[in-house]
Amino acid sequence: MAKEESGESTLTVLVATAANATIAVLKLVAGFFTGSAAMFAEAAHSIADTATELLLLTALRRSSRKPDRQHPFGYGKERFFWALIAAVSIFVSGAVFAIIEGVRTILGEEVEQTLAWVAYAVLAVSFVLEGISWLQAVRQVRAAAAAESTTPLRWLRATDDPTVRSVFYEDSAALAGLLLAFGGVGLHQLTGSSFWDGLASLLVGLLLTGVAYILGRTNMGLLVGRQADRATVLALRDALAARPEVDQVVDLLTMTIGTDQVLLCARLDFADAIGVAQLERACVAIDAELHERFPDLREVFLEPVPRTDPVMRHRVLERYGQGAADRLGGT
């Protein structure tokens, strides 16, 4: 399943890369012919998106490497790192240029528009190509959301796959940007004022800034070390608490270490009646059961601790609060 999802993500990124590279060339040519600030801003937008997709392809390739001595938990977080760099790329190479170009056009001298039909033709072709890439991203988002019995919007907020999310937001912003550029070129042609062209460029820049912020913030959280989704955490707690050898789940720590890769550390109060040999066998059995039930688990660490230990109780209360700590222990 993980290989299928990785292959689907790669396809989504490849489609987006091909579309954006073609569109970038078309928009750049249209910008030179028409002198439109909005077209130049859109060209910068597509160049930024192309660079972003290349970074995401790097993320997919490097994050799939197997664990080794220096990286015993694998390279899964490289996907988050390169996705964060991609978000920075959107801002630096797309948003900043579009904002500067928009401000320059608004405050500068009036520029006569030429060959507006070239801009309209390029925008129309770009909308079709971006739409193809966007539909591929939407198809994957809907399929992934259906597989997890959730809505596409909730899946986008919770997913630990930054590649699909990045392509979806980029393509959504690209379609909105094309409409803004169309409006800017059209109003410039109708009014004869390049103000509208500059305003469209400025709005494209602000749109890209928003997308870069959303993607950057999400990937930063994953890099720092976000816990597994709430449903998985609760399911893990219930699975551990149901074991006959376990009296109480004292603490449960999870961390996303890659796309569909979770690390688990559980502190358990085992039944006092079991001996050392039984405890060892119980840990082996619990590890096997959890790996079978939760395919995303990569590493499982189990630590026997007494529930009455004041230091451990203080740590749990400090991290979760009284209510959450009680729910963790099943009280």
UniProtKB/TrEMBL annotation:
It is found in: Membrane. Its main location: membrane. GO terms for molecular function: monoatomic cation transmembrane transporter activity. Pfam families: Cation_efflux (PF01545). Residues 13-223 form the Cation efflux protein transmembrane domain. GO terms for biological process: zinc ion transport. The chain crosses the membrane at residues 12-33, 80-100, 115-135, 198-216. It is a multi-pass membrane protein. Keywords: Membrane, Transmembrane, Transmembrane helix, Transport. InterPro entries: Cation_efflux, Cation_efflux_CTD_sf, Cation_efflux_TM, Cation_efflux_TMD_sf, SLC30A9. The keyword Endoplasmic reticulum does not apply. GO terms for cellular component: membrane. NCBIfam families: CDF. This is Cation diffusion facilitator family transporter. It comes from Pseudonocardia cypriaca.
